[in-house]
Amino acid sequence: MSITRSIVLGCGSYLPARTLTNAELAGMVDTSDDWIVQRTGIRERHIAADGEFTSDLAVHAARDALAAAGLEPQAIDLIILATATPDHTFPASAVTVQAQLGITQGAAFDLQAVCSGFVFAIATADSLLRTGGFKRALVIGSETFTRILDWKDRTTCVIFGDGAGAVVLEAAPQAGTLADRGVLGAKMRSDGRHKSKLYVDGGPSTTGTAGYLRMEGKEVFRHAVTMITGAVEDVLAETGTKATDIDWFVPHQANQRIIDGCAHRLGVSRDKIVSTVDRHGNTSAASIPLALHTAVTDGRIKQGDLVMIEAMGGGFTWGAALIRW
Ligand code: ACO
After folding, report:
1. CB distance 39 to ligand 1 below 6 Å
2. Quick one: 8 and 128 in the same domain?
3. Are residues 203 and 297 in the same domain?
4. 256 lines ligand 1 (CB under 6 A)
5. Distance, CA 288 to ligand 1 centroid (Å)?
6. How far is the CA of 322 from the centre of ligand 1 (A)?
7. Is the entire prediction scored with pTM above 0.90?
8. Counting atoms of ligand 1 from 1, which one is nearest the CA of 284?
9. Closest-CA residue to 60 (of 145, 142, 168, 116)
10. C-alpha angle with apex 254: 44 to 280, nearest 5 degrees?
11. Count of domains for the chain
12. Which of 139, 154, 174 is the last residue in one of the domains?
């Protein structure tokens, strides 16, 4: 029986030129390279230049993904941009990306699920592609989180960075088996009772300002491993796969200790973990496609590999998706 799957045609990413090291941060707030590395695994992060917006980062990543897919922008009829740091309250940054790419067909919108945004965007694009309403999607995660950081708060400003990543998905007929290419299963979850544990203290309807990121780090940590492993296990059960079948585990790059904790609990071996948190920091919705592109570029992820992505973030939101590359 032939079914429609959303298969990955290409992957791309973009990092702003400027890096900020832990040593530089230690000159700004009371922290140290040792503390940051031990608690988070982060060594440096990238910072968008003045005048460089979330949509600009997204356009670079999208062009990179289109080139990898061997497609012109006009082949795309759906853009989903996962971001919690849009250029403006409205319009969606996705329409700026659409216009900059010269795409005049289809639909473009932003998706807001904070660090889980890319997983939610993959799940959403997959659903829309499988309905037959769209043919090819650009799924982008792009963030300028350094713009919403309180640079006097050492508990948050050492964690986040800027960047963008993108994949091109195409609706394609597949056999309907586990050997198919494409998105094989996905899970999205949220529980708003936790919304005050990681949030931004501003917004158009409340303060009329963009606000700053606030986080109860210990509380986030306490829930992260349980929520993430639950979502991954749901996707494994839904697809009839086991953790040992996963070729590459590509988590949201929040914190090396959360990544290791999840992999350990799931029984995923260390050599299958793709980690870029040391160089990128936590780039929220951009972190998974940035890590995917890193592992595709260095030859780890190859066509046919089984790739599990997962994330947890503000809301709380969390989820996972299994993709045969
Ligand atoms: N440098 C030096 N000391 C610091 C820093 C810093 N940057 N930040 C906090 N401290 C101090 C604290 O003030 C505290 O000092 P005290 O004992 O004198 O009061 C001490 O270090 C320990 O602080 P804790 O908050 O208990 O440190 P913890 O071990 O919990 O680590 C951290 C903090 C890294 C934020 C951890 O809780 C964590 O990783 N949480 C998960 C948060 C996360 O990953 N967020 C990402 C967004 S959500 C997501 O993407 C999933």
Report:
1. yes
2. yes
3. yes
4. no
5. 22
6. 31
7. yes
8. 50
9. 142
10. 25
11. 2
12. 174
